[in-house]
């Protein structure tokens, strides 16, 4: 069991290793610094995909980018991946790290998709900047040492060590600099009062604040700070919150109230009147929000877009009439709504599509993108209509359009495919694109004759070159695959014999007589005609043409016997002796006349025989009618027989009588009689059931 368990573990490890190697082989990663010039080398893509230079023309390497901008391109020989457009990491990714651009590499024969990711490395191409180059701070002379005054923060679009790392302040015995770091990593500078101020000695102080990054070379930005020392104002303003955290929907209209800041001052009169203003704020944030200096209302003045900026930071300042200030921070989070329609990009692989393409052949790659986040950015694709294609998921945002069932150009020569991408937002947004796919013809249909067998009739003694018959075949294919040519394929006399009798025109299918036909020599013959298309390989079919030669009266009668050589010589002047021979009008036209005469004679004989039979029946009926008419007036009974004995004594006179009945209402005349009876004599046996007919029935 231990060995079996170890074997299963090893097998599982091998399978996982194969899967990992396959996944690694299908994903290629590059890393380049930003701001490379156009045409700069990114990497040897073909080599990294395992494609040799010899197979590149067959594999047809291409790239598909999901972004609107094509930052990368392939060389003309499809070997190296190069920079196609300016790449500014800060404008593409902002503060997001790492900054990765993704694309798909597509190859054919066989089809495969490889995922390529290019990491954009930051360079120190931006210096720190302050939102306000001049900062004025009002301090009352009674401010206790240790009081801190926010100076805001500088901004550096770079990331990592290239971003803002520290602040520096010009040396001054009255002030020091305190650098604080917020949870998100942003560094803020605060001015700390070290000693008591004396307005009578110095009313203004000037300092320079410097922000430096950690790049090589180091870049920096400065802001000038002016400090005004004022008379005593006992109570400075105090904000209700140190940090205002606000969440705003990105589809809020301009002019909407975003939030309100509020500060209080325990002084009275003008010293308690607070004026609000933005302190440290980016220029892009200032374009989207305004702060009412009296009420502290912050309103939206520009379109919010989660996809452009997910959050904003600023500081607000409240200053009373005596010049004392208070500061608070504002953190604004933008909430994503489903306001972006998915985008579709199509890369046709096969167009037109050969109609003999097998199912599962990839014909197009579809890349979908949605700038929204979460479910709002999850996109699914579907294809409208019932077509012999289907969509398969290749990766998270890539689909393959493949053939689902066999194609037939003769039934459908082109498909208009509508592909719809729909996100999972509420309400869902969708976009559609149309792809017209043409089906190219292959030679999959043989020519078909209009008739399987043709019959042609031609009179003998025709002229050579006369038209015998015209055959026609059709091919459902297109172009050269459907162009039909006709050839003689043989016949009853073989191919050579058929060629001696008729010829066929290759384009029209017309059969012409090669010579004059003689009915007495050949009454009929058959030839085979082959129809062949122009495809590669060519397809063909064959039809039989049977030609019947019709007879003309072109032969005179001749003497069959005796022959002219055996007639003998007659003496001059001798009377002609009766010749024991006959002249037979034999013509080689055996044909239709002889059969017609025989048919007429046979019909005539049958007709005459029928007439004779009918006449005999009529005569027989007439004789019977005459017999009945003659005896119907006085039917005579059987005469009385007289018998004389041998001995001379007269025998008893016996009389016989017969009963005769004639039915008058019957369609047939009947004459019946019963059995004879003797007078005064009892019958010896019973009478028969049926009286015997005397004269019969008609």
From TrEMBL:
The keyword Glycoprotein applies. Keywords: Calcium, Cell adhesion, Glycoprotein, Membrane, Repeat, Signal, Transmembrane, Transmembrane helix. It comes from the Eukaryota. This is PCDGD protein. It holds the Pfam family Cadherin_2. It comes from Platysteira castanea. The keyword Transmembrane applies. InterPro entries: Cadherin-like_dom, Cadherin-like_sf, Cadherin_C, Cadherin_CS, Cadherin_N, Protocadherin/Cadherin-CA. GO terms for molecular function: calcium ion binding. It is found in: Membrane. Potential calcium-dependent cell-adhesion protein. May be involved in the establishment and maintenance of specific neuronal connections in the brain. The chain crosses the membrane at residues 595-617. It is a single-pass membrane protein. GO terms for biological process: homophilic cell adhesion via plasma membrane adhesion molecules. Residues 1-25 form the signal peptide.
């Amino acid at each position: 069991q231990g060995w079996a368990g170890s074997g299963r573990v090893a097998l599982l490890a091998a399978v996982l290793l194969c899967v990992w190697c396959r996944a690694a082989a299908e994903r290629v990663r590059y890393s380049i610094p930003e701001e490379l010039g156009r045409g700069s080398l990114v990497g040897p893509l073909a080599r990294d995909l395992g494609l040799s230079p010899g197979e590149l023309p067959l594999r047809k390497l291409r790239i598909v980018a999901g972004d609107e901008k094509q930052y990368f391109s392939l060389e003309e020989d499809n070997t190296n991946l190069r920079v196609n457009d300016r790449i500014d990491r800060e404008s593409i990714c902002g503060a997001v790290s790492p900054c990765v651009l993704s694309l798909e590499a597509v190859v054919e024969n066989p089809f495969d998709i490889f995922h390529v990711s290019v990491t954009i490395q930051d360079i120190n191409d931006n210096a720190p900047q302050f939102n306000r180059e001049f900062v004025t701070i009002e301090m009352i002379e009674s401010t206790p040492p240790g009081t801190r005054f926010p100076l805001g923060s500088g901004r550096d679009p770079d990331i990592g060590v290239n971003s803002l790392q520290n602040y520096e302040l010009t040396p001054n015995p009255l002030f020091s600099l305190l650098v604080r770091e917020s949870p998100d990593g942003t560094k803020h500078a605060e001015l700390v009062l070290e000693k008591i101020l004396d307005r009578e000695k110095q009313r203004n102080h000037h300092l320079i604040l410097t922000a430096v990054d950690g790049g090589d070379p180091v870049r920096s930005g400065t802001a000038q700070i002016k400090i005004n020392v004022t008379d005593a104002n006992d109570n400075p303003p105090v904000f209700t919150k140190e940090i205002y955290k606000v969440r705003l929907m990105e589809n809020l209209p301009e002019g909407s109230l975003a939030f309100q800041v509020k500060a209080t001052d325990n002084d009275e009169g003008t010293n308690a009147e607070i004026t609000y203003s933005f302190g440290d704020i980016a220029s892009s944030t200032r374009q989207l929000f305004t702060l009412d200096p009296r009420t502290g209302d912050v309103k939206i003045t520009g379109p919010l877009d989660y996809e452009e900026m997910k959050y904003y930071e600023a500081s607000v300042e409240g200053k009373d009439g005596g010049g004392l200030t208070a500061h608070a921070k504002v953190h604004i989070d933008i909430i994503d709504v489903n306001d972006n329609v998915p985008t579709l990009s199509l890369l046709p692989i096969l167009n037109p599509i050969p109609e003999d393409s097998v199912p599962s052949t990839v014909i197009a790659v579809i890349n979908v993108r949605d700038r929204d986040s979460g479910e709002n950015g999850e996109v699914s694709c579907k294809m409208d209509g019932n077509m012999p294609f289907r969509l398969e998921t290749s990766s998270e945002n890539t689909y393959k359009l493949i053939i689902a069932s066999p194609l037939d150009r003769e039934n459908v020569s082109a498909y208009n495919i509508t592909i719809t991408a729909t996100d999972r937002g509420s309400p869902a947004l969708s976009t559609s694109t149309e792809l017209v796919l043409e089906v190219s013809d292959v030679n999959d249909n043989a020519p078909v004759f209009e008739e399987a067998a043709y019959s042609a009739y031609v009179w003998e003694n025709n002229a050579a070159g006369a038209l015998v018959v015209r055959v026609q075949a059709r091919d459902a294919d297109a172009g050269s695959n459907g162009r039909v040519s006709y050839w003689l394929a043989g016949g009853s006399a073989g191919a050579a014999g058929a060629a001696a009798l008729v010829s066929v025109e290759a384009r029209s299918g017309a059969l012409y007589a090669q010579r004059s036909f003689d009915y007495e020599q050949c009454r009929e013959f058959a030839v085979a005609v082959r129809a062949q298309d122009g495809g590669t390989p060519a397809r063909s079919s064959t039809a039989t043409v049977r030609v019947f030669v019709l007879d003309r009266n072109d032969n005179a009668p001749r003497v069959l016997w005796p022959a002219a050589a055996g007639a003998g010589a007659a003496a001059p002047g001798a009377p002609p002796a009766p010749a024991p021979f006959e002249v037979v009008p034999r013509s080689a036209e055996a044909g239709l006349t002889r059969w017609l005469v025989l048919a007429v004679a046979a019909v005539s004989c049958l007709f005459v025989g029928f007439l004779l039979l009918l006449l005999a029946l009529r005569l027989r009926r007439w004789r019977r009618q005459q017999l009945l008419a003659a005896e119907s007036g006085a039917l005579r009974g059987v005469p009385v027989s007289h018998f004389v004995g041998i001995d001379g004594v007269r025998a008893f006179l016996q009389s016989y009588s017969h009963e005769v009945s004639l039915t008058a209402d019957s369609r047939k005349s009947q004459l019946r009689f019963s059995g004879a009876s003797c007078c005064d004599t009892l019958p010896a046996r019973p009478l028969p059931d049926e009286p015997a007919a005397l004269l019969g029935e008609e």
